[in-house]
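Most newcomers find our protein records easier to grasp once they have seen one. A learned vocabulary of local backbone shapes supplies the integers on the structure line. An example says more than a description, so a record of this kind follows:
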Amino acid sequence: MLLRATLSLIAGLLPLAAMAQDLESLRNQAEQNPVALARLRQAASAPDAKAAFYLGTLYSPLITRQESTVVKGWPETMHWYRRAARLGSARADFDMGLAYEKGLGVPENPQRAAAYFSRMAAIARTETAAPSPAGAAADQAGSHANQGGRPQLY
């Protein structure tokens, strides 16, 4: 019974995993296609940091293309950027930092902007750094288990 439930869960997630490989393309389709928008929203709610980030870009008043499926607005943009940032998206941290630095959809807050920029930089360093033997051993020992390997904002 447990095996059947596990296999069912995995089978349900496989379409989302395949979709995650090309989320930018899905985001571009979602500009005009309500079905693609629904798929992107489903992935973003799964939760998927990259999907949440791309959904935020779809709502952003600063990114104007051919969107006919959404109404542009800061509240929805910030909702999805925050979600993506919480899930560890450096790109979302950068956009959140800009929002707080410039007062885009949120009150200007240089301290909060700096915190998002700092976290973005830390994530980028972690993603681009070659692992040292000591760092690899610490990761295997679970030293980052509490934070999912990502620096926390507050």
Notes: The chain is about 65% helix and 0% strand. The chain has one domain: 13-129. The domain at 13-129 is CATH 1.25.40.10 (Serine Threonine Protein Phosphatase 5, Tetratricopeptide repeat).
